[in-house]
Fold this protein.
Amino acid sequence: MVFGKVEVCCVSSTAAALFGMFAGMRWRRSREEQEKAKVMEIPPPTRAASASRIRRAPSITGLEFPPSSKDSHYLSAPGELVDSADMSQSQPMALRNQAGKTRFTTMKVIFVMVGLPARGKSFISMRMQDFLNWIGLESKIFNVGQHRRQAETREQNAKYFDASDTRAKSSRDALAFEVLEELFDWLDARHQGAAIFDATNSTAERRRAVQQRCKDHDPNFSVIFVESFCNDKDVVEANIRLKLTKSPDYQGVPYEQARADFMARIKNYESVYETLDDTGIKENELSYIKLINLSSHLVAHRVYGLAATAVLPYLMALHVGTRSVWLVRMGRSSDKPCHAISDPRHQFGDLPLSDEGEDFTRRVAAHFANKPDMSAAKLLICSHRRAKAMAQLIDPEGGRTSVRAFLNPMDWGVYEGVRRNDFAQQTDPEFYDAFTKDPVNTRFPGGESYGDFVRRLLPVLVEIEQQVVPCIVIAPLNTLQVLSCYFSRLDLREASEIDFPQHSLIEWRPHSGRFAKRKLLIDDLPRPPAGDNQPIKKVGLVPSIGSIRYMKGPSG
């Protein structure tokens, strides 16, 4: 296996999270293993030469990568010789050390898209932008095609994309690097950020030029290439139809004429297309993520840090399915807990449904029962009693329901139970001032910040995105507000202002690369069939309830 490269095919959300974790881990050996390695004679897997001594890589600044070695355990960079048991100064470890020095709060990263037309690059760019913004890393897409349509005066039919037309190629390259300069200006003006360079970048020559421009402008920029490689004919055909109906290039052009021109454009790109591949000598030094048929097969090469722990699992979850995501606010609670729990912070998790909450639950169950596509829906619920009671009516056998404690409310520490509107009067002035200035990163004393909350919810979002069947999420108000920021593309600072009334549910359906919203209130839901008014079965206490903090009061 090449050091720094991982491949994975079609895995579950749990495996996706583990993959991201392991992709970002540093390689270490204990002292005992190092001593043992000194006396063991293990022939190298890809070379006949001895591996007992390797060359020390130069410092990461201005690092030049060897062009010939497939297995980067073996280094050919000039420098002093060190014992093979000490890998701390090797080239792979230098790369990882550089990634480790990149802090989340100072990160500036450029994602460079790669791929033929109609392969989903813009779809991936849009979704990746929404995700990065949601986790707190401001991001922006820089689309070369949009700039070309605005700046280019020549006719831009298929002949314009002919690689043998040197004049057109020079024009396309110049336009692409104009956009790259705009990208640099945007990143330079920020303390942190993620810029997405959306273009075909279909040759190794172009990618090397982009990499070099980024390095020359600021060697501290992290550059990660993201290729969408697709050879699934059905997916490509669907993308072509979407492109022809949405692209400004073919606005007002008859469909058959537009299709013939676009297919000719694709052939021009295919004639020079070079896919990212580290088996050769051209691009082994690049950091890249390669998506094959979107998320069915993923290759990660020299990807570390936040990109490995957050972006990789997210990209593995993406697909072009049209399943809906339903966010359901837990039904209203009664005022009395089912068990004698003295701590008011824990009563919230034990409060049963009120009569109104039971009526809402029955209506929600009847609503989903009337929709054939919801018979296989996946339920993700928090660990509260009311959520379990609601899930029990929707999924009586429980085979489609998973309890996720990550969905429990945000922990407000010593201010549990204080309503958002009362912060000015009931919190410490110093805390309130800090929270007003930075509501995302200011941590509640003894509790979480909104940034912490997002990182807690990240595995759940990946699991939601990975579902190919409808997904129902039952959770308290502030959890649904934070999740809604992702689907609605709102700033996390606006989470507490999102309107999510008691006894309501919101459907998010994929639409044009993003999500369309539909809100249903209790009066929009059908009444349950006559005679279906038996009391909802009381569920047991949530395990380990004493170790979980909850917001106080019946308003969750």
Q: What stands out?
A: The radius of gyration is 27 Å. Residues 24-84, 99-106, 541-555 have pLDDT under 50 and may be disordered. DSSP finds 17 helices and 15 strands in the chain.
